[in-house]
Amino acid sequence: MIFLAEEEPQSPLLPVVPEIIIGLICFGVVFFVFYKKLLPAINKALDERREAIEGGMEKAEAAQAEARQTLESYKEQLAEARHEAARMRQDAQEQGAALIAEMRAEGQRQREEIIAAGHAQIAADRKQAAELLRQDVGRLAIDLAGRLVGESLEDHARQSRTIDRFLDDLEQQATVTVPSQSEAGSR
Question: How confident is the model at residue 84 (pLDDT cuts 50, 70, 90)?
């Protein structure tokens, strides 16, 4: 180094040749060590990372495809469930309508039975009332006739004939009066 210092002053921008050679040798050794030892480890780590990323992307795509398929399956099941619910609702409405119609028919039948029973009861009551009235009117007519005639009309056969005649006359008069009143009401 002393030798170097004796020579002419060097430019600060240009390095000395032996320093350049020593620097190149050191650079070559460091480059060789990095190239042989460090670069394969870095490349291996990068390759593993690339594979992991690509594998993760493939897994994500597969999971996304499976999710789409599951979503479509759920949509189909939901549509089927909605269709089934609509069918069940329609069936329930039809059954309800049939039940209502059946109940109306049953109600109508019961109403007709009640009306028929009422008419039969009214007819029986009317017949019974007519019979009682006939008996009462007959007794009253016999008592009245007995008072008018002045003798007792206790003979049963005679009473029956007299009562029957009297009531037949009343019925004829009622029959003649009713049509003439209905004719006058319709005019």
Answer: very high
- 173/61 Cα distance (integer angstroms): 109
Query: In whole angstroms, what is the distance from residue 110 CA to residue 104 CA?
Result: 10
Phi/psi zone of residue 150: left (φ > 0), alpha (ψ -120 to 50 degrees), beta?
left
Please state the domain extents for the chain: 14-174
Are the C-beta atoms of 153 and 142 separated by less than 8 Å?
yes
Least confident interval from 40-54, 56-70, 164-178: 164-178
**Which residues make Cβ contacts (< 8 Å) with residue 138, sequence separation at least 6?**
159, 162, 163, 166, 167
Count of other CB atoms within 10 angstroms of residue 98: 10
How confident is the model at residue 172, as a pLDDT?
Answer: 84
Q: Which residues of 25-49 are buried (b: 16+ CB within 10 A; e: fewer)?
A: eeeeeeeeeeeeeeeeeeeeeeeee
- The two tokens of residue 85 are 């619910």
Q: Hey, how many other C-beta atoms are within 10 angstroms of the C-beta on 142?
A: 19
Whole-number pLDDT of residue 112: 93
* Amino acid at site 24: L
Question: Which of the pair, 183 or 28, is modelled with greater confidence?
Answer: 28
Q: Would you say 22 and 4 are in contact if contact means Cβ atoms under 8 Å apart?
A: no
